[in-house]
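Give me the fold.
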Amino acid sequence: METPSQLPFGEALRDRLGAPAADPSLLESSPRSRVWRIELAGRPAVLKQLVEAPEADERYAREVAALRIAGRAPGSPVVPALLGTDPAERVLVLEHLDHRRPAAEWIVDYATALARLHGTAGPEDAGTLPRWQGPTVADVSSFLTLAGTLGVAEGPGVRDELHALVDRLGQAEGTALLHGDPCPGNDLHTPDGVRFIDFEQASLGSGLMELAYLRVGFPTCWCVTRAAGPLLERAENAYRTAWHAGTGTPLPDAGLADACAGWLIRGDALVQRAHRGSTDHLARIPHEDWRWGTATARQRLVHRLGVVAATAADHRELRRLRILASDLRRTLLDRWPALRPVSTRRP
């Protein structure tokens, strides 16, 4: 077990917070960080250090900026309190929170907290975080190549429709604070409400890009879940209500179908972060399936195809994609009939 002297807890933190007590506990974390439970002045806290790796400085800066913005939330907090930082060591000291097992209908409270998180940023925060980045024309090409490989004709006008989608997502307005990976596990269900952690991929943009997570099954996450229709409707309504209450503006009706379609065509949304940008993952689908967390790549894709086929039903600018999504989903299920729907239960 590490001792306080071995912790990355320098003089600046000691001057501000005092010395940590003995016996810190190393907690489970991603390979990109080391996390300890420590004790300061008789109270538990969390120390997180981003380890040396590509983009570590950027990820640290994003997390600190996002926590400071989110810390402005009125009423109950949506993030743990940021107690101290040491940029030279890429260290954050955070309030320790008690997490309890989420309720069966956890997604409603989650959606409310997500809207409140998104609403903490505004135009004055421009430049403090990068803008959200959507899919590219390369994603369009990969998606349509997959359809062709599986014998599904893209149909006239689909390519132009998808290029227009990429343009719309690239120009989507919004100053919401986006978490970047708002997944089960990065939400702590405390006695005082849901709070979010791990903001290394935070950005600014339209909140619809993360509201879409509820429909498409948490596309950047190891844990894929789907909410039954009435529960999904309750969660989305909870998000809209909380957004309106926090910002004073209604959530735009347009844009959710675009956001869902954007997640569909991104092959990198089929693999964990360490493997993104390494290859065309959609091109792997006809030849192999692989499990990441609670679902396989083909399960994820089938779910997203069904979501887009349903969500785009009344979306004039995606009517050709709706047909393609429906046809491609049917082809996947015909070819691999053992594919099961993604789970409705959170692990």
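The mean pLDDT is 94.
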